Amino acid sequence: MADTGTIYLVGAGPGDPDLLTLRAARLIEGADLIVHDGLVDPAILAMAREGATLISVAKRRSKHTLPQEDINALLVREAKAGRSPVRLKGGDPLIFGRGGEEAEAARAVGVHVEIVPGISAANGAAAAAQIALTHRDASSIVSFVAGQCKGLSDQNWSGLAGKGRTLVIYMGVKTAGDIANKLMADGLSPDMPVAVIENGARPNMRVLRGLLAGLPDLVENEGVTSPALIVIGEVTARTDAQIAARAMEAAQ
């Protein structure tokens, strides 16, 4: 009977292969089996060695190639057969990547797991858009939330957004209207600046800016599609022109 392999939960970062960690790149290049999400960039998958098996377990809103339980079972089955599957995820495997669930499923049956962190979608997209998620003049707190969870309207987001805070919303394109209404109902100003980053850190990235009250129209009118992040907070309004204007005011 073959020795049990190791399951590698690997973060693929926001898309650009140059943003992979060295450990992630080496595992991808040496893997016999790669089980990957739909958002992993084709250029990263192209790094796999000739003969490697690539299995897509892409997830889209309300449509999964494989249920999560089946993905867990696949990884465990392959590891017990002596293979060491690379489970490749966009961004970081432990930030809205279900890596915690997969690691728990493996450890529960005695399969060794190694987690290789990646640049998260929030960090990568914000950096590419030159939006500082924290800034001494604008934000000392950052929160990450999922915008398409069940019971969105019942969740307590009190205090997550507002003066001195930045809120980053994953998977919020389809629920942008509900998100804006929820935040305004909780007391956030309709004039709070927002940014939508589509295809962050990729060649086709778009950065759209507006105000919270106009977020639903911004998403709809611009035809925003996933992958996209919504960033809410004063940091999104720190464009070059605005920064220059503030500097002139301070100098007067």
UniProtKB/TrEMBL annotation:
Gene Ontology biological process terms in this record: methylation
Pathway recorded for this protein: Porphyrin-containing compound metabolism; siroheme biosynthesis; precorrin-2 from uroporphyrinogen III: step 1/1
Molecular-function annotations in GO: uroporphyrin-III C-methyltransferase activity
Domain named Tetrapyrrole methylase: residues: 6-215
Domain of life assignment: Bacteria
EC number annotated for this UniProt entry: 2.1.1.107
Matching SUPFAM superfamilies: Tetrapyrrole methylase (SSF53790)
Assigned keywords, A-Z: Methyltransferase, Porphyrin biosynthesis, S-adenosyl-L-methionine, Transferase
Cross-referenced InterPro entries: 4pyrrol_Mease, 4pyrrol_Methylase_sf, 4pyrrole_Mease_sub1, 4pyrrole_Mease_sub2, CobA/CysG_C, Siro_Cobalamin_biosynth, Uropor_MeTrfase_CS
Signal peptide: none
Pfam families hit by this protein: TP_methylase
Family membership noted in the UniProt record: Belongs to the precorrin methyltransferase family.
Name used for this protein in its record: uroporphyrinogen-III C-methyltransferase
Lineage start: Bacteria, Pseudomonadati, Pseudomonadota, Alphaproteobacteria, Sphingomonadales
